[in-house]
Amino acid sequence: MVRNDKIGMFEEARPRLLGLAYRILSSRADAEDAVQDTFLKWQAADVSAIESPAAWLTTACTRRCLDLLKSAHRKRVDYVGAWLPEPIHTASDDNAEEKLALTSSLTTAFLLMLERLTPKERAAYLLHEIFGQPYDEIAETLDMQEAATRKLVSRAKYNIGVVQTRHTTPRERQEELLAAFHGAIHGGDIVGLSALLSADVRLTADGGGKAATVLGILSGKETVVAFIAERLTEYWSHYRWETAELNGGRGIVLRSEDGDVAATVSFGYDTDGRVTDIFIVRNPDKLTHLDDATVH
């Protein structure tokens, strides 16, 4: 096999590997590191002896992600304030059921649910439920018995409550929320926004100790609305607003006068379309890759 064929095989698999790695690690930067490490290992491998290149690459990438996940969890012990996944741009196609299924597994709310799982539970669940890999292949990837792998997936599905976190909120409802949020910040119309929030709505902001933001999670409609009215209307009035597809849903990108991303805002919804979560990412380290290509 010539070198170009080997590279071509990897490049064909790259989007899938990047999507898998991002879902496991919740970080675009770490996901790209994992994929690059997989590429280096692939370059050193004897491809003629590999029966299924796609399965080999998935296994290598997954195992590297599990190693990186252990390191990431250690770093989060000392993380300043609330931690949120790194936001990413995602493509929009309301008519593609497969794409909707994939993007629903990219929402911030869903990625936070994955944090409840052990690393192997997370990998097994994603490989089977999102990427359609059979149990026997997952067992080989995780170096486990197939029966144990089935239990991992079953336990993961129970722990994350898939129905609650992977439903799709109608696009019209999302657009209504964006308009109401903009009206609250720039027009002082808190009533319109308040009507769309659940009673126990939460506001979580991630500054990572590198950008000013609220450190704790704000809970309850009254508290959240007061913070938006009294603080965000002042802090955000000078930013340029852009609506964007963030982690599979409609969100907001705030840019400074020089065009740099200052913050992203995304939302979580219940099955009735009420807003349960407002996620604000201000940590500049997590905004570096926002304008990069989509992770599928």
UniProtKB/TrEMBL annotation:
Domain RNA polymerase sigma factor 70 region 4 type: 109-157
A Pfam family per the record: Sigma70_r4_2
TM ranges: none
Residue ranges of domain RNA polymerase sigma-70 region in the record: 9-74
Domain of life: Bacteria
InterPro entries: ECF_Sigma-70_Domain, NTF2-like_dom_sf, RNA_pol_sigma-70_dom, RNA_pol_sigma70_r2, RNA_pol_sigma70_r4_t2, RNA_pol_sigma_r2, RNA_pol_sigma_r3/r4-like, WH-like_DNA-bd_sf
Subunit structure: Interacts transiently with the RNA polymerase catalytic core formed by RpoA, RpoB, RpoC and RpoZ (2 alpha, 1 beta, 1 beta' and 1 omega subunit) to form the RNA polymerase holoenzyme that can initiate transcription.
PANTHER family: ECF RNA POLYMERASE SIGMA FACTOR SIGJ, SIGMA 19 FACTOR
Record protein name field: RNA polymerase sigma factor SigJ
Lineage, uppermost ranks: Bacteria, Pseudomonadati, Pseudomonadota, Alphaproteobacteria, Hyphomicrobiales
